[in-house]
Amino acid sequence: MADSGVTDGYEKKGDIERAKSEGKELTKEEKQRLRKEKKQQKKSKEKKDDKVIQESGKETRGDSSAASPPQPSSQSTAQKAPSAVPPPVSVPAPEAPTPADKPAKSKAELKAERRARQEAERASKQSKKGDPGPQGAVSKSKAATNELQPVVKRLPEHIQVDNPDVLKKLAKKLERQQTPGQNSAKKIPLRLDYGYKVSLFSHLHQYSRKAPLTQQLSIPSTVIHPAIVRLGLQYSQGIVAGSNARSVALLHAFKQVIRDYTTPPNEELSRDLVNRLKPYISFLNQCRPLSASMGNAIKYVKKEISNIPSQCKEEEAKHKLLKCIECYIKDKIILAATAIAESSIEKISDGDVILIYGCSSLVNHILCEALEKNRKFRVIVVDSRPRLEGREALRRLVQRGISCTYVLISAVSYILPEVSKVFLGAHALLANGYVMSRVGTSQIALVAKAFNVPVLVCCETYKFCERVQTDSFVSNELDDPDDLIVTRNGHTQLENWQQEPSLGLLNLVYDVTPPDFVDLVITELGMIPCTSVPVVLRVKNVDQ
Amino acid sequence: MPGPDKETDLTERVEAFLSDLKRGGSGAGPLRGSAETARETTALLRKITAQARWSSAGDLMEIIRKEGRRMTAAQPSETTVGNMIRRVLKIIREEYARSRGSSEEADQQESLHKLLTSGGLCEENFRQHFAPLKANVIEAINELLTELEGTTDNISMQALEHIHSNEVIMTIGRSRTVEAFLRDAARKRKFHVIVAECAPFCQGHEMATNLSKAGIETTVIADAAIFAVMSRVNKVIIGTQTVLANGGLRAVNGTHTLALAAKHHSTPLIVCAPMFKLSPQFPNEEDTFHKFVSPHEVLPFTEGEILSKVNVHCPVFDYVPPELITLFISNIGGHAPSYIYRLMSELYHPEDHEL
Q: An example Gene Ontology cellular component term from the record (chain A) (predicted)?
């Protein structure tokens, strides 16, 4: 089988060259065959044990059973565009060149190349490590939910900053993510880290707010849509902040992109638009690392785009996509908030003293709804440096007429004996039941537990995420360390912190709360305990 | 005449000290550490002993009690003042008893046996006059002053027994005792320190700059990140404003959260507190336990209109129960929180608990 695969591959090489020179489109069957052959080539070239051969058999089976849509979705769930590392094996030459030299290359070949590169990279990684890890397809579990597929997760780049290879790959990836035909001056710049990073966090990025990525872009930049540039700037300066706000802003920007999009000749909308979105997403990721809710929204958009049938006219397709995005916002965010508010109001009784932390749009919405339904309660807003988001929540609540108290997080042990309930918002809910939220949330939950005050977390289901995490170190976001500097009585103590060699400032953005501190999670599907998150995820996957 | 001059001079000194206390507590005057306050109080008491007119120990104790009440009323949260007064009262009692020649060790404690057998006879009225009493008392107070001067050094000397290499130590706010403790250990060992800045006064910043100048790897974190970072911390070392009679603490706000986080991760919590901070108060005095400063620190006046519609609190101290504390390090060595009551009975006489 292996040998015939090799010879077949060389035949196909001839086919490819012919097709390319004629600019002809390969038919679907030819494409599939191509992919299969290449995969088998790679497999046979490495010294693998039986497990991997079985895995490759499963893959090819999966390949032939599923039509082309699973390919883009599996690629998107891998969360990474194909790396630019040329495959170490002797792949036939036409598959190696950069997209820059062949503007009119058909999408089939691009896809084939990407696939080949992915396989090669995975294979080379495996051989380097020397252990045959599970190499199964990346969550094609939609088609086969009965099997628990082993998920090959490529680690996201933003938690591997201490690995110089990964950084080099990212730089190359950014270089390549340009619309073909542009010269390299108009590529997406690589954002550099700032300041001394605490050694425990050297695997994360730390950017300075004073040096936004947009300063390094050339104007006019034809690579990135202006709506996306504006969005990136808003993210990095903190103008748009908060999980829901960021997702909604992202979706609106995508709508603008889709409206302004025209399909180039010889391309399919479903393929090309996804490729067009990739550099935008890299750009936004560099401005500020993507949140879990944004990741889920992007997955959804990419899926919808890929599901556009190829015979659909462009206007119709764009209209359909815009409608899909609007439905997503309406269902997952706005209606979900209404449903959650209804359930939460049952939990608020007259005379309650409710403690909230920071500014969560969902919790504010719940409190305003409860006020409309004439519940008598008062609110204690807890805030923390350096973001001081609680002041925003305070303003909104006071404007509605809710009686509020305001303290800093260090005074929470003083104020907690008065409190009857704690309502917290979440940034994401992880699959092991941990709640990822603004830094300080876990502390409030801890102290509330010590005083026996119930803690309720409100979270929409679109923020549920399949990652697992047990502490706040492995995956987090480091904000600008200069934010911690404060001037009191005319004296700024930490002004020259960069000159002190042994002094570091740490400005964390998120932390994880263990599920034993949380009593209840209120979602639009109902009130569930923290540990039911993987159940909800599974149910959602089956539905889709 | 030397007499009246001395007296006016004395009253002036006392008045100056009282106004200093009042100003210092509100944050407007120079912020002084507890050690300084203790030293000044003791020096002032020595002066009173030397210059005031008294004939017997009872008179002296009355004078000191009166002044003491005024001083504690000026700044109730500054407990070191009251502690020093009680120490001096105990010194007077001891010197008096020694002058009388009785073996006072047994008399000091009110044992059940004594209560039953001696009836109401043990009313000491301290009325006898002893000539060398004044000199003895002043000498004892001098000894107390020497002890006060050496407290920080005594505590720092124990640093190497508690810190091993490559440790990650967490602390909160600014404590001169802890700073000296860590700097002493840093001369011989390499370790990391994480300082929680302790908003709104952000005294942690000053602590961090001082520690980093001594060559210690320091990181400043916001208060909100205490629990997030605690999983990597090996020890928590803090200072405190007061050690209460039950072994609990009255410490800067945020300490209770720190203690709870340390308990959750089973990290030992070590309190560096010299003996003059030990106070015979219990924590259940609701109205006097907490001290508040201007809420301007928390929500500044620049916020505008909403200030009139919002309640803002800015408490300065936190209560930490003794169950969360692992060890006290003081100038006389290390103790468990359950031993504090014993130390207290050695330092203060039970009748002086209420001034």
A: cytosol
Mean pLDDT, 10 residues at a time, over chain B (355 residues)?
A: 69 87 63 82 90 86 91 87 92 87 57 61 68 88 92 92 94 94 94 92 92 94 94 95 92 94 96 93 77 88 86 92 95 92 90 84
Question: Do A535 and A421 belong together in one domain?
Answer: yes
Residue B55 phi, psi dihedral angles, 5° rounding: -110, -30
- Cα separation, B355 vs B353, in Å, equals 6
Mutate to test the interface with B, among A408, A434, A435 (most CBs of B within 10 A): A408
Domains in chain B: ranges and CATH: 2-107+125-146 (1.20.120.420), 154-350 (3.40.50.10470)
Q: What is the distance between the alpha carbons of residues A45 and A116, in angstroms, rounded to a whole number?
A: 13
Two tokens at A531? 């540990």
User: Does pLDDT of A181 surpass 50?
Assistant: no
Statement to judge: residues A305 and A262 lie in one domain:
yes
pLDDT digits (tens, 9 = 90+) for A489-507: 888 888 888 888 899 999 9
| Chain B CB contacts of A384 below 8 Å | 199, 222-224
Q: Which three-class secondary structure state does DSSP give residue B43?
A: helix
Contact B231 A473 (CB under 8 A): yes
Q: Which of A395, A439, A500 sits opposite B306 (nearest CB)?
A: A395
Q: In 3D, which of A291, A247, A239 has the Cα closest to residue A436?
A: A291
Q: Which amino acid is at B299?
A: L
CB contact under 8 A, B260 and A406: no
Residue contact A385–B216, C-beta within 8 A: no
